[in-house]
Design a protein that fits this description.
7-stranded parallel β-sheet; Rossmann fold; 7 strands; alpha/beta
Length: 255
């Protein structure tokens, strides 16, 4: 199936590692120019070099920006438009989880940081991409949420609340930006990333045993879904949340 992404330009936040880097690799593999953003320029430069080597001929721009800093976000979007003439795809992937424990004990600073990065950044980067390019050109937005936004869990309840917000924001933006821009969401299950390391590193075998498809996810599992939603193969989809979790959310409560 043809994705229609060749020659398009995609901006991915949180792109220096994990799911974001895998999505950038996958989009570049489809012939899209990619703009990589995260906080550290050095890490972005390393990721950009990997992508150039794997997908020669596509444009790759690495532009550091803190996802919650409006001025840095504006500079990143402007750099993408200047370098490639516009944007066609935005992937809101950056996320953080600075607190583990009951919501009754979370401190305001940790709560504010979680909202800033996981939730309001989706609004901010969508606004900027829409105004700078997507309103005129049309395109697609893919937001990375979590299956945690659909369930309750111990320890990461506030993180999950922000991911539930991302799911709703995706639906709201899909309504508001139609028909020019499609907005869809991916809700990954547990994926082997540095952000989620504390959840899987010491009990990967046990988790895999109780996952219907028998393993924990890897970033490439989410990247494949992002390519689908960003490309022409999903041209009649908007406002939807695609769960990619190895079947974890269909597992019986009692084995």
């Amino acid at each position: 199936m043809r994705t229609g992404l060749q020659g398009k330009t995609a901006l991915i936040t949180g792109a220096s590692r994990g799911i974001g880097k895998a999505i950038a690799h996958a989009l570049a593999g489809e012939g899209a120019n990619v703009v990589l953003s995260s906080r550290r320029q050095e890490a972005l430069d390393e990721a950009a070099a990997e992508i150039r080597a794997a997908s020669p001929g596509v444009g790759v721009l690495a532009k550091a920006a803190h996802v919650g800093d409006r001025d840095q976000a504006i500079a990143c979007v402007d750099a993408a438009v200047t370098e490639f003439g516009g944007l066609d795809v935005l992937v809101n992937n950056a996320g953080t989880s600075p607190y583990f424990g009951p919501m009754a004990d979370i401190e305001p600073a940790a709560a504010a940081k979680t909202v800033e990065v996981n939730q309001f950044a989706v609004v901010q980067w969508t606004q900027l991409a829409w105004r700078a390019s997507l309103r005129e050109r049309g395109g697609a937005i893919v937001n990375i949420a979590s299956v945690g936004g659909l369930v309750t869990e111990h320890g990461i309840g506030y993180y999950n609340a922000t991911k539930a917000a991302v799911i709703h924001l995706s639906r709201q933006f899909a309504m508001e930006l139609a028909p020019r821009v499609r907005v869809n969401c991916i809700a990954p299950g547990l994926v082997k990333t540095a952000l989620a390391r504390a959840l899987w590193e010491d009990n990967e075998e046990q988790i895999a045993k109780y996952t219907p498809l028998g393993r924990i996810g890897v970033p490439e599992d989410i990247a494949s879904a992002a390519v689908f939603l960003a490309g022409d193969t999903a041209s009649w989809m908007t406002g939807q949340t695609l769960v990619v979790d190895g079947g974890a959310t269909i597992r019986p409560a009692i084995a």
